[in-house]
Amino acid sequence: MSPPFSLSCECGLDIPVAVGDAGGKKRCVCGRELQVPRLSELRKKAGRDPFESGVLDTVRRELRELDDHVGDFCLHSGRPTQDRLWVELICEQKRVVENRKSDRDWRPVKLLVTLFALLTWPFVGISYLLSRLWTDNSPIPDVQEFGHDRSISLPLPVSSEFHQDLSRKKLLKYLKQVPLFSKIFDEYPDAIVRRR
To answer: 26 pairs with which residues across the strands?
Structure first.
């Protein structure tokens, strides 16, 4: 596979530059040593966004370049249309898991401490019992978050007369028919769709 970028030398040759060369130096066959720009600069020179962290960033950039032009024919009827049905493709959602910790495991220990306190120091034992009665013993929630919220808004070429009639299943089918959008499903096969 050829390197994704290139630099032009004063001698007129194009020198292939790999991602790993960014920020370093590269020697031309003529002997000149060239400073390789940072990766963000190489990406800009190649007509890309400075940073693309995944397929969603790539699709957003390509949509901007296409000026949201994803087709002239309605995906539902096959007739020419300039109408767009905007949908939101939810690729990943953050999951929140709540584990409830209980202090039940400590009850035998607490009972022994209370008995000891009652037998040795009546005042301390009574104080402890009263404090336990007034203390909230409900489980302590332990919340963990997994994943990220990732979604993208996409225009589907669908005549406005069909906008309300389409099910989510149909919308997913039509999204997969647009070549630009179909690559999202390679990375997020379980993505779900909803109307905006």
So the answer is: 34
Task: Give CA–CA dist 85/166, Å, rounded.
Answer: 10
Three-class SS of residue 157?
coil
Give the Cα separation of 49 and 103 in Å (integer). Answer: 53
Number of residues that make up the chain: 196
- Sorted by sequence, the CB contacts under 8 Å of residue 177 that are 6+ apart come out as 75
Three state DSSP letters for 98-150: EEEECCHHHHHHHHHHHHHHHHHCHHHHHHHHHHHHHCCCCCEEEEEEECCCE
- Beta strand residue intervals within 49-109, DSSP E: 85-92, 95-101
If DSSP codes are grouped into helix, strand and coil, which group holds residue 117? helix
pLDDT (tens digit, 9 = 90+) per residue, 77-115? Answer: 999 999 999 999 998 888 887 765 555 556 676 777 766
Integer Cα distance of 19 and 40 in angstroms: 10
- From residue 49, alpha-carbon distances to 14, 53, 57, 150 in Å are 22, 10, 9, 19
Residue type, 22: A
Tokens 């030398």 label which residue?
9
Closest by CA position to 72, among listed 183, 156, 138, 165 = 156
Please name the helix (run of DSSP H) or strand (run of DSSP E) that holds residue 17, with its range, or none: strand 14-17
pLDDT tens per residue, range 111-128: 777 666 666 665 655 666
The identity of residue 128, as a single letter, is Y
